[in-house]
C-alpha cells in the first residue's frame, strides 16, 4: 500500500509504531526523521526503512514537504 503525505514547515508526524513494515521516500522538501530514538535529517531523494513495531515520527523542515510511504501488509486502518 502506498500513501503520499504533504506537510507544511514545522508540522509533526507524531511518534508511533505499527505492525507493518514501511519504507518512506522523500518526494519533496526535508524532514527531521526520528527512528527508534535516532534523529536524522532526510531530504528529497532519500528513503528510510522502518521495521515492524519500531517507534518513528517526523517533523517537516520546509513548506510543501512530501513523503511517499509504502506499507506491507496493507494498512486496513487507512481504508
Which strand order do you get reading across the main beta sheet?
A: 1-8-3-6
Radius of gyration: 12 Å
Strand content: over 45%
What overall geometry do the principal axes of the alpha carbons give?
globular
CATH superfamily annotation:
Jelly Rolls
Largest sheet: number of strands, sense, barrel closure: 4 strands, antiparallel
CATH topology: Jelly Rolls
Reading off the top of the CATH hierarchy, the class is best stated as Mainly Beta
Helix/strand structural class: mainly beta
Q: Could you tell me the mean pLDDT?
A: 97
Number of domains: 1
Quick take:
By secondary structure, this protein is an all-beta fold. The protein has a single domain (2-78), classed as Jelly Rolls (Sandwich). It is 0% helix and 61% strand.
Task: Describe the model.
19% of the residues are buried. A four-stranded antiparallel beta sheet has the order 1-8-3-6, with no helix packed on it. A four-stranded antiparallel beta sheet has the order 2-7-4-5, with no helix packed on it. 0% of the residues lie in helices and 61% in strands. It is an all-beta fold and 79 residues long. It has one domain (2-78): Jelly Rolls, CATH 2.60.120.10. It is globular and about 30 Å long.
Question: What keyword list fits this structure?
Answer:
Jelly Rolls; mainly beta; four-stranded antiparallel β-sheet
Give the helix/strand layout:
Elements: E1 2-7, E2 12-16, E3 21-28, E4 30-35, E5 38-43, E6 47-50, E7 56-60, E8 65-72
Antiparallel strand pairs: 1-8, 2-7, 3-6, 3-8, 4-5, 4-7
Amino acid at each position: 500500500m502506498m500513501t503520499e503525505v504533504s506537510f507544511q514547515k514545522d508540522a509533526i508526524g507524531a511518534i508511533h509504531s505499527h505492525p507493518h513494515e514501511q519504507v518512506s521516500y522523500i518526494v519533496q522538501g526535508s524532514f527531521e526523521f526520528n527512528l527508534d530514538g535516532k534523529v536524522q535529517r532526510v531530504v528529497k531523494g532519500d528513503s528510510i526503512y522502518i521495521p515492524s513495531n519500531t517507534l518513528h515520527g517526523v517533523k517537516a523542515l520546509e513548506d510543501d514537504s512530501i513523503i511517499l510511504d509504502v506499507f506491507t501488509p496493507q494498512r486496513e486502518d487507512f481504508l
